[in-house]
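User: For my dataset I need records formatted as: sequence, then C-alpha coordinates, nothing else. Please produce one.
Assistant:
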Amino acid sequence: MIDTGVGQPDTRTAPLNLISLRITWDLGFLDPPQNSLRPDVPDYVKNFYKTHQGTIDRCVNRVFGQKGDGTPDPAARIMERQTISNAPEISYEMSQFQLQGNTGVPDTLATFGIPSKLGHSTVYIANDVPVSTTDIAKAVFHELGNILSAKMSYKLTGRADPYAYGDPNGVPYPTASGPPFYDKDTGARLERCIFGPPK
Protein backbone atom coordinates (compact mmCIF):
# COMPACT_ATOMS: atom_id res chain seq x y z
CA MET A 1 0.00 0.00 0.00
CA ILE A 2 1.29 3.48 -0.82
CA ASP A 3 0.22 6.43 1.32
CA THR A 4 0.04 9.43 -0.97
CA GLY A 5 -0.82 11.80 1.87
CA VAL A 6 -3.95 12.95 0.04
CA GLY A 7 -7.36 11.32 0.51
CA GLN A 8 -7.56 7.54 0.68
CA PRO A 9 -4.36 5.49 0.66
CA ASP A 10 -3.42 4.04 -2.74
CA THR A 11 -3.81 0.28 -2.52
CA ARG A 12 -1.29 -0.39 -5.27
CA THR A 13 2.11 -1.69 -4.21
CA ALA A 14 5.41 -0.08 -5.09
CA PRO A 15 7.65 -2.15 -7.35
CA LEU A 16 10.11 -4.13 -5.21
CA ASN A 17 13.14 -2.94 -7.18
CA LEU A 18 12.34 0.72 -6.37
CA ILE A 19 11.96 -0.07 -2.68
CA SER A 20 15.23 -2.01 -2.56
CA LEU A 21 16.99 0.79 -4.49
CA ARG A 22 15.77 3.37 -1.97
CA ILE A 23 16.83 1.20 0.99
CA THR A 24 20.19 0.50 -0.63
CA TRP A 25 20.73 4.21 -1.27
CA ASP A 26 19.62 5.24 2.25
CA LEU A 27 21.92 2.70 3.92
CA GLY A 28 24.89 3.89 1.87
CA PHE A 29 25.37 0.76 -0.24
CA LEU A 30 24.81 2.74 -3.41
CA ASP A 31 26.23 6.20 -3.91
CA PRO A 32 23.85 8.81 -5.32
CA PRO A 33 24.86 10.40 -8.63
CA GLN A 34 27.92 12.67 -8.18
CA ASN A 35 26.24 15.82 -9.54
CA SER A 36 23.29 15.56 -7.14
CA LEU A 37 25.70 15.99 -4.24
CA ARG A 38 27.32 19.18 -3.05
CA PRO A 39 25.48 21.96 -4.88
CA ASP A 40 28.21 24.31 -3.57
CA VAL A 41 30.86 22.72 -5.82
CA PRO A 42 30.97 23.74 -9.52
CA ASP A 43 29.84 21.10 -12.02
CA TYR A 44 33.23 20.95 -13.75
CA VAL A 45 34.88 19.97 -10.44
CA LYS A 46 32.16 17.37 -9.81
CA ASN A 47 32.63 16.02 -13.33
CA PHE A 48 36.38 15.80 -12.77
CA TYR A 49 35.80 13.68 -9.67
CA LYS A 50 33.33 11.52 -11.60
CA THR A 51 35.55 10.90 -14.63
CA HIS A 52 38.91 10.73 -12.84
CA GLN A 53 38.06 9.06 -9.51
CA GLY A 54 40.50 6.21 -10.22
CA THR A 55 43.37 8.64 -10.85
CA ILE A 56 42.46 10.60 -7.71
CA ASP A 57 42.46 7.39 -5.63
CA ARG A 58 45.78 6.22 -7.10
CA CYS A 59 47.48 9.58 -6.56
CA VAL A 60 46.20 10.05 -3.01
CA ASN A 61 47.49 6.56 -2.19
CA ARG A 62 50.84 7.30 -3.84
CA VAL A 63 51.38 10.72 -2.23
CA PHE A 64 50.15 9.77 1.24
CA GLY A 65 51.47 6.20 1.26
CA GLN A 66 55.06 7.32 0.79
CA LYS A 67 56.61 10.68 1.62
CA GLY A 68 58.48 12.64 -1.04
CA ASP A 69 61.80 11.35 0.30
CA GLY A 70 60.66 7.72 -0.10
CA THR A 71 59.82 7.05 3.55
CA PRO A 72 56.70 4.82 3.86
CA ASP A 73 53.78 6.43 5.70
CA PRO A 74 50.45 5.06 7.00
CA ALA A 75 48.35 8.14 6.09
CA ALA A 76 46.87 6.66 2.89
CA ARG A 77 45.63 3.62 4.79
CA ILE A 78 43.84 5.57 7.52
CA MET A 79 42.31 8.51 5.63
CA GLU A 80 38.86 8.31 4.11
CA ARG A 81 38.50 8.03 0.33
CA GLN A 82 38.45 11.44 -1.34
CA THR A 83 35.22 11.92 -3.30
CA ILE A 84 32.91 14.78 -4.17
CA SER A 85 30.96 14.15 -0.96
CA ASN A 86 33.95 15.17 1.21
CA ALA A 87 35.53 17.61 -1.24
CA PRO A 88 36.64 20.95 0.19
CA GLU A 89 34.35 23.93 -0.14
CA ILE A 90 35.38 26.50 -2.75
CA SER A 91 35.38 30.22 -1.99
CA TYR A 92 35.95 33.19 -4.30
CA GLU A 93 35.78 35.81 -1.54
CA MET A 94 39.41 37.01 -1.81
CA SER A 95 41.46 38.77 -4.48
CA GLN A 96 44.89 37.63 -5.59
CA PHE A 97 46.44 40.43 -3.53
CA GLN A 98 44.67 39.14 -0.41
CA LEU A 99 45.74 35.56 -1.13
CA GLN A 100 49.36 36.70 -1.61
CA GLY A 101 49.14 38.33 1.82
CA ASN A 102 48.26 34.94 3.29
CA THR A 103 50.83 32.88 1.38
CA GLY A 104 53.72 35.31 0.85
CA VAL A 105 53.99 33.95 -2.70
CA PRO A 106 53.52 36.24 -5.72
CA ASP A 107 50.98 35.23 -8.39
CA THR A 108 49.02 33.11 -5.89
CA LEU A 109 45.92 31.65 -7.53
CA ALA A 110 44.67 29.69 -4.52
CA THR A 111 45.29 28.77 -0.90
CA PHE A 112 43.45 26.76 1.74
CA GLY A 113 41.90 27.09 5.15
CA ILE A 114 40.99 24.24 7.50
CA PRO A 115 37.78 25.78 8.92
CA SER A 116 34.66 25.40 6.77
CA LYS A 117 30.89 25.17 7.09
CA LEU A 118 30.72 21.50 6.06
CA GLY A 119 33.89 20.37 7.86
CA HIS A 120 35.91 19.49 4.73
CA SER A 121 38.07 22.66 4.75
CA THR A 122 38.02 25.45 2.15
CA VAL A 123 39.94 26.22 -1.03
CA TYR A 124 40.16 29.98 -1.64
CA ILE A 125 40.53 30.94 -5.31
CA ALA A 126 41.43 34.49 -6.40
CA ASN A 127 38.30 36.23 -7.61
CA ASP A 128 40.11 38.63 -9.92
CA VAL A 129 42.32 36.32 -11.99
CA PRO A 130 40.84 35.09 -15.28
CA VAL A 131 41.70 31.39 -15.52
CA SER A 132 40.26 28.31 -17.18
CA THR A 133 38.10 25.75 -15.42
CA THR A 134 41.02 23.32 -15.81
CA ASP A 135 43.29 25.72 -13.89
CA ILE A 136 40.67 25.97 -11.14
CA ALA A 137 40.37 22.16 -10.96
CA LYS A 138 44.17 21.94 -10.68
CA ALA A 139 44.11 24.54 -7.89
CA VAL A 140 41.36 22.64 -6.05
CA PHE A 141 43.33 19.38 -6.07
CA HIS A 142 46.59 21.18 -5.25
CA GLU A 143 44.98 22.70 -2.16
CA LEU A 144 43.24 19.40 -1.34
CA GLY A 145 46.74 17.90 -1.10
CA ASN A 146 47.76 20.62 1.35
CA ILE A 147 44.57 20.18 3.39
CA LEU A 148 45.04 16.41 3.63
CA SER A 149 48.72 16.87 4.49
CA ALA A 150 47.91 19.30 7.30
CA LYS A 151 45.16 17.05 8.66
CA MET A 152 47.07 13.77 8.42
CA SER A 153 50.35 15.14 9.77
CA TYR A 154 48.43 16.61 12.70
CA LYS A 155 46.69 13.28 13.30
CA LEU A 156 49.96 11.32 13.15
CA THR A 157 52.43 13.76 14.75
CA GLY A 158 50.43 16.50 16.48
CA ARG A 159 51.78 19.12 14.04
CA ALA A 160 49.77 20.33 11.00
CA ASP A 161 52.23 20.50 8.10
CA PRO A 162 51.15 21.12 4.47
CA TYR A 163 54.72 20.21 3.42
CA ALA A 164 54.80 16.82 5.22
CA TYR A 165 54.23 14.78 2.03
CA GLY A 166 55.69 17.24 -0.45
CA ASP A 167 58.67 16.84 -2.76
CA PRO A 168 61.73 18.09 -0.82
CA ASN A 169 63.25 19.31 -4.12
CA GLY A 170 60.06 21.13 -5.09
CA VAL A 171 57.85 20.89 -8.15
CA PRO A 172 58.88 23.54 -10.71
CA TYR A 173 56.14 25.98 -11.72
CA PRO A 174 56.80 28.44 -14.55
CA THR A 175 56.51 32.10 -13.60
CA ALA A 176 55.53 35.10 -15.73
CA SER A 177 59.10 36.35 -15.64
CA GLY A 178 62.27 34.83 -14.30
CA PRO A 179 63.17 31.38 -13.02
CA PRO A 180 60.54 28.80 -12.06
CA PHE A 181 59.06 28.68 -8.58
CA TYR A 182 59.82 25.37 -6.83
CA ASP A 183 56.81 24.45 -4.73
CA LYS A 184 57.68 21.97 -1.96
CA ASP A 185 54.21 21.57 -0.51
CA THR A 186 52.15 18.39 -0.69
CA GLY A 187 49.61 20.01 -2.98
CA ALA A 188 52.20 20.42 -5.73
CA ARG A 189 53.04 16.74 -5.51
CA LEU A 190 49.37 15.67 -5.65
CA GLU A 191 48.63 18.06 -8.52
CA ARG A 192 51.62 16.75 -10.50
CA CYS A 193 50.45 13.16 -9.98
CA ILE A 194 46.87 13.88 -11.10
CA PHE A 195 47.51 16.37 -13.92
CA GLY A 196 51.15 15.84 -14.90
CA PRO A 197 53.99 18.40 -14.64
CA PRO A 198 52.90 22.06 -14.34
CA LYS A 199 52.98 24.05 -17.59
